[in-house]
Design a protein that fits this description.
With 375 residues, the protein is α/β, with parallel strands linked by helices. The chain contains 9 helices and 18 strands. Bound molecules: flavin-adenine dinucleotide and glycine (GLY).
């Protein structure tokens, strides 16, 4: 029997789950279809930085979107805690982008200047100030302090969202959507291996696997970008702030661990191996950035597949040529950060409400953007 819903959301990562939850809160009957378990992929693998200022290289709509989503986060995790009893452990610890060379100092000053001009808080700390705050960080030339960037515990966030969607939507796990076909002006047929569903609106939020569900007219190309991470538990001295340098980061979690990330491998496809090279690179980064952490206990290592795309920015909203078909794909390095604002955009998109100008830069039918992702 074919079941009918107002909206079918395909993909149970942070993007699909937050969107499904918000859509269900509007009173719609929402079905969430997940191939594996909800939160099984990139979303629970993430380092969980809310790096609105860290991860963006220039002012513009993407920076605005990141700041907007960061500003929604406290209320988002508070609501999830109240609703599900799970605390996603938002840590307002700020980020130090450390300089180990004079060139890095100059680049960080340029970043600080455009961010302050745009109204954000950012300050350059001397090496003495860095050492006073973070005594275990290696000798350095100072750091750009971004006090409003924070981090959450990504596995706990996905756990909270899993409970939220289970309570508000119909959730089916372990089913792979194989086709989405326009049935009529009234909606779509969504097929899995064993079942079909019909819905007036469909949201494709299938992370690094989204391409195969998108129509051939979709203007971008979604592809996996493998990242490897590890977690350590310091024995004594630890870090207060997230420390970032040259693609490597150390993110102190409220549970006492430090997440160390991350590699970025565009050629690995859907490969899931944890490799010697990657672990060596991550451990060398710990030694380079905070050598006194070398006696920390190695806890675990893992991989995640970022939903990368041919464009550095995500694609969000309705496809003009396919009314009722909405996408939320290509969040790449920032899907955790961008989940709350993406969900708001999806709700307005499904409800047919006009978007503010700065959201329009993320519509699928937009001019291609050349840059914008850091560093
Ligand atoms: P996913 O979490 O991958 O979810 C997509 C889901 O769709 C999956 O569960 C999959 O099983 C399901 N699916 C796929 N195809 C189908 C189908 N045909 N039918 C049914 N279900 C399907 N972001 C940040 O903001 N801050 C960070 O610090 C950060 N660090 C990161 C570090 C690493 C190493 C990695 C890999 C990512 C990091 N990210 C970070 C990025 C973030 O994890 C992603 O952008 C985000 O999780 C994407 O969410 P998603 O829901 O689009 O994808
Ligand atoms: N945003 C951190 C990462 O993707 O590695």
């Amino acid at each position: 029997m074919t079941e009918s819903f107002d909206v079918v959301v395909i993909g149970g990562g942070v993007i699909g789950m937050t969107g499904a939850w918000r859509l269900a809160q509007t009173g719609r009957r929402v079905l969430l279809l997940e191939r594996d378990r909800t939160g099984a992929e990139a979303s629970s693998a993430a380092a969980g930085m809310l790096g609105a200022q860290l991860e963006v290289s220039e002012p513009g709509p993407f920076y605005q979107l990141c700041l907007e989503s960061r500003s929604l986060y406290q209320a988002f995790v508070d609501e999830l805690l109240e609703y599900t009893g799970v605390d996603a452990q938002l840590n307002h610890n700020g980020i130090y982008q450390i300089a180990f060379t004079q060139d890095e100092v100059h680049a960080l000053h340029r970043r600080m200047e455009w961010q302050i001009r745009g109204g954000a808080r950012a300050e350059f700390l001397s090496s003495t100030e860095v050492t006073n705050e973070e005594p275990i960080v290696a000798e350095n030339y100072g750091a750009l302090h971004l006090p409003d960037d924070s981090n959450i515990n990504a596995p706990l966030l996905t756990r909270a969202l899993s409970i939220a969607v289970t309570q508000t939507c119909t959730v089916v796990e372990g089913v792979e959507v194989t086709a989405v076909q326009r049935q009529s002006a009234a909606g779509y047929v969504i097929s899995t291996q064993s079942q079909t569903y019909v819905a007036g609106a469909v949201v494709v939020a299938a992370g690094a696997w989204a391409q195969r569900l998108l129509p051939s007219s979709f203007p971008g190309k979604i592809q996996p970008v493998k990242g490897q991470l590890l977690a350590i538990r310091p024995r004594q001295a630890t870090l207060k702030h997230t420390i970032f340098n040259d693609h490597a980061y150390l993110v102190p979690k409220r549970d006492g661990t430090i997440v160390v990330g991350a590699t970025e491998d565009r050629g690995a496809g859907y490969n899931r191996d944890v490799t010697v090279d990657a672990i060596q690179y991550l451990l060398a980064s710990v030694k380079r950035i905070a050598p006194r952490l070398c006696d920390a206990v190695f806890e675990r290592s893992w991989i995640g597949l970022r939903p990368g795309s041919s464009d550095p920015h995500p694609w969000i909203g309705q496809l003009a040529a396919s009314p009722g078909l909405h996408v939320a794909v290509g969040h790449f390095r920032n899907g955790i950060l961008l989940a709350p604002v993406t969900a708001n955009m999806l709700v307005d998109s499904v409800e047919g409400r006009p978007w503010p100008t700065h959201w329009q830069a993320f519509q699928p039918e937009r001019p291609s953007v050349e840059s914008g992702v850091t560093r």
